[in-house]
Specification:
Elements (H helix, E strand, L loop, with lengths): L2 H25 L4 H23 L4 E4 L14 E8 L1 H4 L8 E8 L2 E9 L4 E4 L15 E5 L4 H10 L2 E5 L2 H9 L5 E4 L3 E2 H13 L3 E3 L14 E2 L2 E4 L1 H11 L2
Parallel strand pairs: 1-2, 6-7, 6-8
Antiparallel strand pairs: 2-3, 3-4, 4-5, 8-12, 9-11, 10-12
Helix pairs in contact: 1-2, 4-7, 5-6
């Protein structure tokens, strides 16, 4: 398998494992908090085991793992969020969580995948570029539940409306799938939150940058990016202008 296929396979496998883990934990009567912790741990351990088998020698940066810094001297580093949207994972029936798997070489994502396990969908850098225009009368801007201000500015600039939901991967894939038009996260994000979604969105033909308008770089000593803007190309210029007023 090439790296694109590995990313897609691991995102799908981990998603299936997380669905079963949640179902079993709910049947056993576990609390939401216990289910969240269990999902984080099970997904992290599974991905480390599978990467060691499929790509031995590659470095890994995981939200759930300790960062020993060895990745900074590695040629290839997998940046993973085993369970993006842990809070929502603990809510019965919630689909607003994801699995992120990305390979970074020389600061850029070389392959990536994001799975939305409840919806049984996997998006990856293997997919075809975006081709269809938005058919909505009002464009939709999506953002985090706690961060509305900048998204409202973007919505005003493009004549749209704002919606909010769970994980970064879930929101980014809403743009990739055409359900919404722009995703704005106005504050800093850890690389494991942004890397795979940004790479998948860029491969789909969307405009991707930090909210400062600059290209994203990954596997830095401090693994943080300056927010995230994912936009259909026809809205990118106005969205960036709204974010730099």
């Amino acid at each position: 398998m090439d790296d694109h296929e590995v990313a897609g396979l691991l995102a799908r496998e981990t998603g299936k494992l997380l669905v079963k883990t949640r179902e079993d934990a709910e049947a056993a009567g576990h609390s939401s908090r216990k289910i969240q912790a269990l999902g984080d741990r099970v997904a992290h351990e599974f991905l480390l085991e599978r990467l060691d088998a499929l790509r031995p020698g590659d470095a890994v940066l995981s939200e759930e793992g300790a960062d020993d810094g060895l990745r900074l001297g590695a040629e290839r580093t997998w940046i993973i969020d085993p369970l993006d949207g842990t809070h929502d994972y603990g809510l019965p029936g919630s689909s607003e969580w994801a699995v992120h798997v990305a390979l970074v070489i020389d600061g850029s994502a070389a392959a990536a995948a994001v799975s939305l396990p409840v919806d049984n969908q996997v998006f990856g850098t293997f997919q075809s570029p975006l081709g269809r225009p938005s058919l909505r009368q009002q464009p939709v801007v999506i953002t985090s539940r706690s961060q509305w201000g900048e998204a409202e500015e973007v919505a005003r600039a493009i004549g749209g409306v704002v919606r909010a939901c769970g994980s970064a991967g879930y929101k980014a894939m809403a743009v990739v799938s055409g359900l919404v038009d722009v995703y704005v996260h106005p504050s800093g994000l850890y690389e494991w939150d942004a890397c795979a979604p940004a790479a998948v969105a860029q491969a789909a033909g969307l405009s991707v940058s930090g909210v400062d308008g600059l290209p994203l770089r990954f596997n830095k000593a401090r693994p943080v990016v300056a927010g995230l803007l994912i936009s259909r190309p026809e809205f990118t210029e106005k969205a960036r202008q709204a974010l730099t007023w």
